Amino acid sequence: MGGPMKQEKQGISSAVLHDRLPGMGGGERFAIETARVLDAPIYTMYVAEGVSLPEDVTVIPIQQRKYTRGLSGRFLEWKNEGMNPLETLSVAFDLTDAHDELAAYDVLVESAPLSKSYVPPVEQTVLHYPHSPPRWLYDLYRERLSGFDYPGIRFALKAYAKWWRTLDKEANDYVDQFVANSELVRDRIQRYYDRDSVVLYPPVTGDWYDDGDDGYFVTWSRLSPEKRIDLVVDAFAGLDERLVVVGDGQEREALERKARDCDNIELLGYVDNIEDVVARATAVVYAPKDEDFGLVGAEALSAGKPLIGVNEGYTRQQVVDGVTGLRFESTVASLRAAVERFDPNDFDGDEIRRFAERYDRTTFADNLLELVNRTHAEAASKRSAVNNDTKTVHIH
C-alpha cells in the first residue's frame, strides 16, 4: 500500500481492524460494509482458505502465512468455531503491534473483540465495535464452565478466564468510543466495562424480498449450540407444518439425526441463495440464546416476513408482538403454541419492512460517518486541551 486511504468527504484517513476472517459471518460483513462507507482498507490477522472476498474492498492480511501454512498454521488456524485458545492468544498478542501502516491513520474502527488488543499511537482516534464483550468471559461464563466436570480442568479454566478478563479490560484504555450493535450490547458494555457506548445497528446486506408463500417456515444460522436450532427442530417434530433449516456447523449431524424420521423437516445445509429461500417462506423462526443483535431477524423483517422469535436478548426487541411477528419462550411447548396460533393474514409485509428501515444500509452509512467525524473531533479536542494544560504547568 502507498500509505493510508483518505476519506475524502471528511478529510481524515480511516482504516478498519478486524481480528481475523475465518468465514463470512455477521462480524465479517460488518467490517466489509464499514470499509465501504469509509473508503478504507481492512487489516486482519489472516483470511482462512476458501473465504471469498469482495473485489471493491482492500483486505490486508497481516500474518497470513503464520496462521494458514506450515506447522504453525496447523496449530493456530481457526478451528471449532473459534474455541482454539492457542489461536485466540496468538491473535490477541499479534494485534498489539499489528501492522506498521496502522499508526498512520487518523481513525481506526475496530471490529470484533480481539481487535481491541491493538495499542494505538497517542494521536489516533479509536472506535471499538465489539459485537459483544466476549460472552464466554461474562454473561455465558457459568454456562460454558458447567460443561466441564473434572475439578482440575474447571480450576484451570477459571484461572484462564480470570487472566483473560484482566487482559480484556486493560485494553479498554485504548478505546475512545465504544459502539454497540444493539441496546442489549450497550447494557453489557456498561455492566462489564463501565463505559458508555453509542448504538449503531449493523446494516442488512443482500437482496431481501417477498415472493409469496409456499407454505413452509424457515430458520437459518450457524448450526451451533447457542443458536438452539435443536429446539426449533424438536418443536416442529410434533407439528404438521413444514420446516426448512439452512446452515452448517458443529450441530449439523445431530440435527440430521433428529429430523431423520420427520417428513415435514428438511435440512438444506449451506445455500448461496438464502434470500430466495426466505422470499417464499410463510415466516421465519429464530430461537438463539440471548442474541447480541440477530442479523437473521433483521434480514427476515427486511424481506417483509413475520418473525417468530424467542423472547430473549435483542430478538425480543425485533418482535413487536402481533405487528412484526410473535414471541415465544425458550421451550418446545411455547414455540409449538406460537406456530399453532400464527396466522399469516394477521401481518402486513409493508408495515414489517417499515420497521426494518432502521437496519437499512443508507441509515447505517449516514450514522457511521457522523459518529466517526464527531468522535474524532471530540478526541482531538481532548488531546489538545491536555497538551495546553501541560504547557501551562511547564510555564509556571
UniProtKB/TrEMBL annotation:
The keyword Ligase does not apply. It comes from the Archaea. It holds the Pfam family Glycos_transf_1. Coiled coil: none annotated. One of its GO terms (molecular function) is glycosyltransferase activity. InterPro entries: Glyco_trans_1, Glycosyltransferase_grp1. Keywords: Transferase. The keyword Ubl conjugation does not apply. Residues 212-342 form the Glycosyl transferase family domain. Gene3D superfamilies: Glycogen Phosphorylase B. This is Glycosyltransferase involved in cell wall bisynthesis. It comes from Haladaptatus litoreus.
